[in-house]
Amino acid sequence: MSLSRSLPLRINLISLIFSALVAFVLTALGGFFLHREQTANAVIRATLAADELATRANRLVSLDMDFADFLRFDDQCAEVIRSDPMLRSAALFNTNGIQQYSSGADRIDWPFAVQLPDANRARTVAASASGILVLHPVMRSKNEVVGYAVVAVNDAAVLHATLNSVGWLVASAFGLFVVGLIIQQGILWRAVGRPLANLVRTADSIQPDRLVQIPELPGMNANDDVGRLYGAFSRLVQRLLDARHELIVQNERLENAVRERTTELERVNADLAYDIERRKELEEELRKLASTDALTGLANRAFIMPYLERRLDQARRNSTPLGLILLDFDGFKHINDTHGHAIGDRVLQIMGQRIQQVCRQSDVLARLGGDEFLIAFEAFLDQGQADALCQRVVALFESPLQIGALSLPLGVSVGAALFPRDGEDLTSLMAAADIAMYAIKQRGGGYLFASPIARDQVEPEGQ
Fold first, then answer.
1. HSE, side-chain direction, 13 A CA sphere, residue 42
2. What is the C-alpha to C-alpha distance for residues 240 and 238, in angstroms, rounded to an integer?
3. Counting runs of H as helices and runs of E as strands, what totals does the chain give?
């Protein structure tokens, strides 16, 4: 067979092998995605069937029936999958993973090693020895899961549907491939085979003793396909040499530009990182200013009130104790009026520091305003521990405050209230502590816990 005939055939053979490899890869990918699509379609059908089965079970559960009292519920399991070949079986499980009813003898294996938590009320797709399962919770009420409706996907049906689709895909592709191969053979002979045959005959006529110089093709016509191809190759080589030189120059320029841009980008990134870090610092400072008393550095009213609301909610849920202590200082107004606001501010700072020293890490100390402070405490087992805290606070101010040469006597009145004994919400707790503080102030200072008698006999100042 001559080269003019065999070359297109070899090209077709190479094209055939390459196309077969591409077709194999595309078929495998197509089969994979078709199988995923069929599986997803089967899961959707299983989800609808599980929803329907769970709805039927919910109707019976809403009538206060237990699973064991359901009548002919195996038929209900069979009915939801009867018309769908993609579904293999359906069953009803209790919360312990024990099968109660099934659509047939084909048993479904529970896909979880342990019982599902009650909080898992969403539809679940799981895999087990029985294949792909869709679980839907059966609810007795909004917050109580009593079981699960489970539907198993028919893996064999999914695979059969996938192979069916792949078969049609392969048949169609093979037909198009054969038609394309026939057309390609004719085009290659006209476009490649005949001109290459002339070029090969010319190359075969070149003698080895003439390799010292560039041989000319005998009988080459610059106007025919072979002559134009030879001339095009010569021009192409020269252009490639010129292009190579230009590419080297351009690469050097590009590398210099990249280095400059990289340096500039690193500088911009460093500036941006600094700006971001500074912004975070400013935001943190603003958050602290919003929740901190500027004079004493303690928590302020804007912080402590929402905090106490949250702690009360937790105390209600967990049935844990919580208490408030209100402090008001006797003689502070006299100090402020006599020695000025600068001394008064220093006194407030010292008061805050002293009180902070006797508080535990879990206690929160806040300044509500003026000379009024609040301590929020929790986790005391009895009132005796709270009494001890109040005693420590009162003892702090038994001796005068020393500021330079000044000796400033200062008493304290402490009113305390406990949750839930003295109030169920923050308003009532604050009122109870305020009443106790006012009552002990009338007695000359010290501390007093709120009680029903104290709230009935004494009204807060200003009422």
1. 26
2. 5
3. 11, 12
For tokens 């405490």, name the residue. Answer: 377
Here the tokens at position 298 are: 């303690």
* Lowest-pLDDT choice from 253-257, 267-271, 363-367: 267-271
DSSP 209: G
The closest of 370, 356, 401 to 295, measured between CA atoms, is 370
Average pLDDT, the chain: 78
Alpha carbon distance 412, 355 (integer Å)? 11
Q: Tell me whether domains 3-160 and 301-457 share a fold.
A: no
Q: Give the CA distances from residue 117 to residues 91, 111, 130, 144, 196, in Å, rounded to whole numbers and listed in that order.
A: 19, 14, 22, 10, 76
Fold classification of 301-457 (topology level): Alpha-Beta Plaits (3.30.70)
Mean pLDDT of 76-91: 86
411-419 and 446-449: which strand pairing? parallel
Q: Would you say how long the chain is, in residues? A: 463
Query: What would the two tokens of residue 402 be?
Result: 């020393």
- pLDDT on residue 249: 87
At 347, list the tokens: 């006194």
pLDDT tens string 131-178:
788 888 888 877 788 888 888 888 888 888 888 888 887 888 778 777
Verify cis geometry, omega within 30 degrees of 0, for the bond prior to 117: no
Return the domain boundaries, the chain.
3-160, 220-291, 301-457
Residues 6+ apart with CB under 8 A from 143: 118
Mean pLDDT, residues 247-270 taken together: 87
What is the distance between the alpha carbons of residues 145 and 77, in angstroms, rounded to a whole number?
19
User: Could you tell me the pTM of the whole model?
Assistant: 0.40
Cα gap 322→418, rounded to integer Å: 6
CA atoms within 13 A on the CB side of 156: 4
Q: Is the pLDDT of residue 322 over 80?
A: yes
Closest CA to 91 of 83, 100, 82: 100
**CB distance 456 to 434 below 8 Å:** no
CB–CB of 188/8 below 8 Å? yes
Q: In degrees rounded to 5, what are phi and psi of residue 457?
A: -95, -25
Question: What is the C-alpha separation between 106 and 89, in angstroms, rounded?
Answer: 7
Determine the straight-line distance between the first and last CA of the chain, rounded to whole angstroms: 120
Distances, alpha carbon 172 to alpha carbons 27, 105, 177, 179, 331, in Å:
11, 41, 9, 11, 100
* Domain 3-160 classification at class level: alpha beta
Tokens found for residue 87? 């579904």
Which is nearest to 448 in space by CA: 418, 413, 419?
413
Condensed to tens digits (0 to 9), the pLDDT of residues 25-77 reads 878 887 888 888 888 888 888 888 888 888 888 888 888 888 777 878 888 88
Q: How far is CA 72 from the centre of its chain?
A: 44
- 364: β partners: 376
